Amino acid sequence: LFTNAFVTTSICCTSRASIFTGQYARRHGIWNFGTHFTPSVLAQTYPMQLKRAGYRIGFIGKYGVGPKRDLPADKYDYWRGVPGQPRYEHKDKNGNYKHYTKIVGEQSLEFLQGCSKEQPFCLSVSFKAPHVQDGDPRQFIYDPVYKDLYKDVEIPRPKTDSLMHYSSLPEFLRDERMEARRRWQIRFSTPEKYQESVKGYYRLITGVDVVIGKIRKELQKLDQDQNTVIILSGDNGFYLAEHGFAGKWYGHEESIRVPLFIYDPRLPKIQRGQRRPEFALNIDIAPTILDLAGVDIPDGMQGRSLMTLVRGQRIGWRQDFFYEHLFEHQFQGVNNIPKSEGVVTKRFKYLRYLEQQPVYEELYDLQNDPHEERNLAKNK
Questions:
Q1: Residue 334 pLDDT more than 90?
Q2: H or E, element range at 122
Q3: Residue 62 and residue 170: Cα distance in Å, rounded?
Q4: Under a CB-based contact definition with an 8 Å cutoff, are residues 326 and 25 in contact?
Q5: Residue (of 259, 279, 244) closest to 373 by Cα position
């Protein structure tokens, strides 16, 4: 378990591109939903590198890089990738309701059942959950089988979702046209909406958890469980009303921090069960996968294999990382996801919003202010 795992850009298209390439956004160039990998960049991604090394490769779920046309379906041995945002609600051939998370699970088992012990495989499963269904007033559309989860629980609101905290933000972030604030109004602006949204979010995550359990059981059934590594992470964090926001994009902990587990049943006992505190980034996933497969890591990858930490090798490791968010999103004449960049260390986080004149700066002492309530940028 990596307890300090982060993304270098908190939005799905850019972060997924970083996961595939092991590169920061300024190198791979994916800043929007309409840009594909160039052929040369695609060839350097971890799935293509593994295919060249003889792996059977599959992709399932939300691809996230580029529009519907020209998706790399023909480059994969098994492709069930979906462009854009998949819908949650489907029907089977008999007209019965079927949630998309369940479909992703069935496709995962189908891929595994098509594998042989003679050929190594790499399956990338890209869940939509727990993303909202954009444009649908229900937002978090979970499988009805989980409707009673948390039914009798009241989930507390986060500390920083208060008028006092929101009032302390600069005027441009409090603008009601800002996407993070517009989505807060939809999901969290009343006690009822907050409870409904957060419980829906957790129910979606439970659905993913159940599918992962089924994948693990299938690996066991196929006698592949002792030779299959499982990596679990996310493409960005998510505000659940912290700072008066919804969505992601900005550099707060809630937006950029992600879960990251590596399960390798082949590891000697002494290397299992570790909780690693070092900075682990989404750009580290691709080189980690290639390292696990014994495949050379391309020079263009900026991340590093996390297995060097797991194995206990004595190496210098990053003490800070760069964050960047240059996504362009226009609404009513403004870019309503303000562009930002910054540097994160174990103790401090420095962020700046590039479009403001003058540039607006934030500095947080994470050691003494873990909820990022006090901006120290103007404190000499």
A1: no
A2: strand 121-126
A3: 35
A4: yes
A5: 244
For residue 183, report the phi and psi dihedrals to the nearest 5 degrees.
Answer: -75, -30
* CA angle in degrees (0–180, nearest 5) for 145-146-149: 145
Cα–Cα distance, 225 to 219 (Å, whole number): 5
In 3-state terms, the chain is what percent helix, strand and coil (to 5)?
35, 20, 45
CA 21-25-27 angle, to 5 degrees, is 75
Q: Answer yes or no: pTM beyond 0.90.
A: yes
* CA gap 224, 367 in Å, rounded: 43
* The residue type at 237: G
- Reported as type and span, the H/E element at residue 369 is none
Backbone angles phi, psi at 157, to 5 degrees: -75, 150
| Pair of tokens at residue 120 | 């190594």
Cα separation of 8 and 303, whole Å? 11
How far is residue 252's CA from residue 246's CA, in Å, rounded to a whole number?
12
Tokens 């998370």 label which residue? Answer: 101
CA distance 379 to 362: 11
Structure tokens given for 362: 């934030």
- pLDDT, tens digit, 9 for 90 and up, residues 268-277: 999 999 999 9
Q: Which of 297, 268, 271, 270 is nearest to 284 (CA)?
A: 297
Residue 255: Cβ-neighbour burial (10 angstroms; 0-12, 13-18, 19+): buried
What does the mean pLDDT of the chain come to? 95
Do 5 and 278 meet the contact criterion of CB atoms below 8 Å apart?
no
Task: Check residue 259 and report its DSSP letter.
Answer: -
Quick one: which of 189, 327, 356, 40 has its CA closest to 28?
40
Cα distances (angstroms) measured from residue 214 to each of 42, 101, 149, 230, 255 = 31, 12, 20, 13, 29
Place of tokens 């900005």: 250
